[in-house]
Design brief:
There is one protein chain. With 294 residues, the chain is of the alpha+beta class. The protein has one domain. It is built from five helices and five strands. Strands 3-1-2-4-5 form a five-stranded mixed β-sheet. Strand 4 and strand 5 form a beta hairpin. The longest helix has 51 residues. The chain is globular and about 85 Å long. 37% of the residues are buried.
Amino acid sequence: MKNASSGNTFYAGVSQGGQKAFTLIELLVVIAIIAILAGMLLPTLAKAKVRAQALDCMSNGRQLMLGWVQYTVDHNDNIVNNFPQPAVLVEINNKTYRSWVNDVMDWSTSSYVTNLDGIRLAPFNAYVGGNIAVYKCPADHYLSAPQRFVHWAARPRSYSMNCYVGPADPSGNAATFDQNYRKFLKSGSILHPSYLFVTLDEHPDSINDGYFQPFSTLANYQNERWYDLPASYHDGACGFSFADGHSEIHKWKSTKATILPVTLTKYNGTILFSSDPNAEIDATWLAQHLSWPN
């Protein structure tokens, strides 16, 4: 075909001036190949991101445990305070901040949630070098609509501490529930430190204080509901840090009682172990690493 003004000839795949060009079909083939390659790579990239977040979470856990161990060294083997919510609220209101963390996570815009003083001014924080970031799992990016509306970047904490570990009040007393199981006030009383977890990722709907209590009693946990829920940020797995200082990722089995979606609403304590055959396996593993009988 001739171009009347220039005299140049146009053919399929040939541009003005005789230079080679892509045809439409060739372009579509290239686009299709790119789409296929992207589809193959995206799952790999997603898995790589999950692994990287898990490694960062384990790094946070190790830093927390190094601080936890050093705290006991400097305090005559006494474990750092680990107060439940009523006592934490007293610490916040009095600005005494004597628990390991002194804030209360929920989905509201309350100052109790963003109370960084409750972390920064707690005696424990000096033992992690004052690094606020170590209290936050990198996979925890959840915010409620009200929190986004007021331009929060993130909630400050993802980790909680085993309720059987540490004094539960300012007088240095252990928690009073579940008297048939050991409460640990000194690190030397932990005979199997590689078996007892100290901190973990807590589920975003469940987390409130820094005190993790999943059951009212370990002797009868199979017949109970979850009080507090573990998280499953890492592809259905949860980060744990143990009294010997090591951290690990534990993979859950139950998609009905343990690997649970984030609803951005306060957990109401209705999850039953009997809702899934794998739920008791998960609950048993957790119970065995919380404490052991007196």
